[in-house]
Amino acid sequence: MDYFPEIVQVVPHEDFAVSVYFSDGKIVLYDVKPLLKTEVFSKINDIDVFMGSCTILNDTLAWDIAGDRNESECIDIDPETLYNLPEAVERIA
Fold it and tell me: At the topology level of CATH, where does 7-83 sit?
């Protein structure tokens, strides 16, 4: 891959999906629901936590669980995994 995925914006949705915007204009929709039953992702199973802690950390989609931008205490997704998702149509809030 010649392009290193750079995430410039993330927008969480109330259906536990996140719109992820890349610097080259690509938009993907990441569905987190299948992961919510795992131990790590159970921390964001509450919609308020999911929506309120969704951010960009380490240059990728993350959930700042501690609320102090501590990268070692966040849940994040590899940016290449996100970039390899099919392109999505932008969801209007």
Answer: NE0471 N-terminal domain-like (3.30.2020)
pLDDT in tens, 37-68: 999 999 999 999 999 999 999 889 999 999 99
According to DSSP, the residues that pair with 20 across neighbouring strands are 10, 28
Of 87, 55, 83, the C-alpha closest to 71 is 55
The first and second tokens of residue 90, run together, are: 């932008």
Give residue limits of the domains in the chain: 7-83
Q: Could you report the per-residue pLDDT of 1-42, keeping only the tens digit for each?
A: 577 889 999 999 999 999 999 999 999 999 999 999 999 999
The distance from CA 83 to its chain's CA centroid, rounded to whole angstroms, is 11
